[in-house]
Amino acid sequence: MGKERIEQKFAEKLASGEKLFIPYIMAGDGGLNVLEERICFLAECGVAAIELGIPFSDPTADGPTIQKAGVRALKNGTTLAGVLEILESFKTRREVPVILMTYINPIFHYGLERFAKACVRAGVDGVIIPDVPLEEEDLIAGFLHQHGIAFIRLVALTSPKERVVEIARRSEGFLYAVSVMGTTGVRQHHDEHVKEYLQTLKEVSPVPVLAGFGVSNGEQARDLGEYCDGVIVGSKIVDLFNEGKIKEIQELIKDSLMTRSKA
Amino acid sequence: MTTYTMPDKTGRYGNFGGRFVPELLMPALLELEEVYETAKNDPAFLQQVEYYLKQYVGRETPLYFAEQLTKKLGGPKIYLKREDLNHTGAHKINNTIGQALLTLRMGKKKVVAETGAGQHGVATATVCALFGLECIVFMGVEDIERQKLNVFRMEMLGAEVRGVSSGSGTLKDATNEALRYWAAHVTDTHYILGSAVGPHPFPLIVRDFQSVIGKETKRQIVEQTGKLPDAVVACVGGGSNSIGMFYPFIEDEFVKLYGVEAAGKGVDTDLHAATLTKGDVGILHGTLSKLLQDEHGQITEAFSISAGLDYPGVGPEHSHLHETKRVTYEAVTDEEALDAFQFLTKTEGIIPALESAHAVAYAMKLARTMSPDETMVICLSGRGDKDVEQVKSRLEER
What we know:
The structure holds 2 protein chains of 2 kinds.
Chain A: H1 2-15, E1 20-26, H2 35-44, E2 50-53, H3 64-75, H4 80-89, E3 98-101, H5 104-110, H6 112-122, E4 126-128, H7 141-146, E5 150-152, E6 154-155, H8 161-170, E7 175-178, H9 193-204, E8 209-212, H10 218-225, E9 230-233, H11 235-242, H12 246-257
Parallel strand pairs in A: 1-2, 1-9, 2-3, 3-4, 4-5, 6-7, 7-8, 8-9
Helix pairs in contact in A: 4-6, 10-12
Chain B: E1 12-13, E2 16-17, H1 26-40, H2 43-57, E3 63-65, H3 67-73, E4 77-82, H4 92-105, E5 110-115, H5 119-131, E6 134-140, H6 141-146, H7 148-156, E7 160-164, H8 171-184, E8 189-191, H9 202-210, H10 212-225, E9 231-235, H11 240-246, E10 256-264, H12 275-278, E11 280-284, E12 287-291, H13 316-323, E13 327-333, H14 334-348, H15 354-367, E14 375-380, H16 388-397
Parallel strand pairs in B: 4-14, 5-6, 5-8, 6-7, 9-10, 9-14, 10-13
Antiparallel strand pairs in B: 1-2, 3-4, 11-12
């Protein structure tokens, strides 16, 4: 459970030569009653973990797609407490690691230590909080650590080398490499220097490196995957679920995980 | 007398403040902090700021003895700090001049800003025109509708105004969008934040640039009355004019400081912007402070007749001064502000901004508890021309 489950699961996949694929879904988008079904479906598609967004009224790191999903989820009455409860209700029926992604205010309001304990009860394995940088992580890192929940750190294209090294050193589970300048959302292509950036991260990171933000198709996923351990796909998956294109999600994941033929 | 040294190195004002932003923005905040630390100790930079404040903005602004108002209220001698007489009509330009000069110092050529009523947007577009900077202003679609004239002003000044329709389409959402834009363009763009909110070092920088209000007031009141005032009153939305007014007085413990929030339809309704009076602790737009939120930590909408006070958060230093009780925070309703708006206009021939009318409204109440040998300063943060149309329609509804 927790950090260990992520590490073990990732190590197994990487050892067998597989890349890691993490889809992002917004809890409560489409209704909370579909959460279990979606998580189980994605697990069957062979994902390494699931990043589960908890909606926040002011998501400054998110682009239009995930913002809209958040609005839909909030309209459905989604709350942090409610999602934790549902996760707890089927935790014995899932093996795929679940990583919560939300902003610090809902967690702060819920109670930092109470949150860490609730994560354990709900079978949450890791947490991503985009608006908590190195400078502010003492607020919550201790509680997560104490309860064995992986605190996944994000590193950005603007991070200078010293910060990259420090962030990578602290990251638990994996290192989340934000691979665009800006917010989440579909991008046509990534800058050439993203590859260099990922290579640098691989050199300094003691944990697997996954690229996220702006990844939306198998081609991009395989392309970036050559320079790191895998990818996180958010907006595209959110869109496909919203449009009911379940089969395409399956194909996207399959396509992303395809071994690149060396031409 | 205790020495006041806030914020500390991590941008904390006691239990409040900090920099809760994505990693992508951290290097820019650290750079800004470093550049600002050097600039504020550089006599050439300070001289430059002073030059533009004097020759371009028209400082210093008068501290005007409001004799008629004083007579009518029959309490203390009331002085008005006339920030409404600044170029562009409000205190906002004190900060944008300073931050535009910092932008040039960082070698950046582009500026992004958020605006509610449009006052900060206009003040930013103005300095960008002056210094040849590219300017993008994010403004909620609701506010664009309510403040068409300011949108036109900004466009005339060469700024691009981008409508924000997410959320409630007001200041909070415009700030989200400005932060997102900044994250995507951080290498060549500076974010000129307009209030004493946001991640460190913004609350510090805005306070310092706005402190010219309090510094001048302190000197002027002593020149005119031979002593410091007994009470100082200023309105608080995010809290930039008030922190600029209060900061130089913080160590003068016998000077009572009053911050006035917007109570909208009343603090016992859901329609208000009284963050310190009714809010609780949380994190919004990069800072830990008091804010309006529901039981799940979702930010709720603020409400006020005054667009400039219509913000669900408040600067972290105000939360600190509230907690330590150095400043007393009160709230006045839309109706009280409207009454004060008309009262000051008729008594002194000065049309205050609706924001500033909140300070006037509370000062009128406070005056009843004070004696004629005491003095009171009201920060008249802006002029009310922008509000005349709205006031007219509100009065017709009465």
